[in-house]
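Methods — Computational structure assignment.
A single polypeptide chain was analysed. Its primary sequence is given first, followed by the predicted tertiary structure written as structure tokens.
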Amino acid sequence: MKKRCDWATKNEAEKEYHDKEWGIPIYDDRLLFEFLTLEGAQAGLSWSTILAKRENYRIAFDNFDAKKIATYNQTKIEELLNNKGIVRNKLKINSVVTNAKIFLEIQKEYGSFSNYIWRFVAGKPIINKWKSVDEVPAKTEISDNMSKTLKKRGFKFIGSTICYAFMQATGMVNDHLTTCFRYGK
């Protein structure tokens, strides 16, 4: 039996996400925007809840195409607020539209969002060596800085804890436990 990180053992969706995605460095802008959106949607909820709704989010938000999302009008927002397949929180839904616009500005300024966001970790993953889930922080100085910088640009639902979860998900930090079969891969 594979030894996984403690958080990824509740159901098959978590196991699959952990085994095939979590912590693998992502440089694709669309995927980075997807994770920013999903981590923001998770605020106050479990990752399991968001993971179960991920496909619905992809459909509802045009596969996280920031150019399309940046053009969403009130009619589209109302449609999203009535979509039972996603978290129907007005502030969270509006934040996706706001964030898409700023995301596009950053792409224009830096050539890609990836170029911009990976600068927070000097372009390469931080490899941690946690033995226990209790050692894994909820936020760090880097995620504090990322959050503060993105908020200054106008991003919403982008607190330090959200930023750190984003960093974990996108491989900016490797927080697989040293006992996990994914550690070091």
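Note: The chain has a mean pLDDT of 96.
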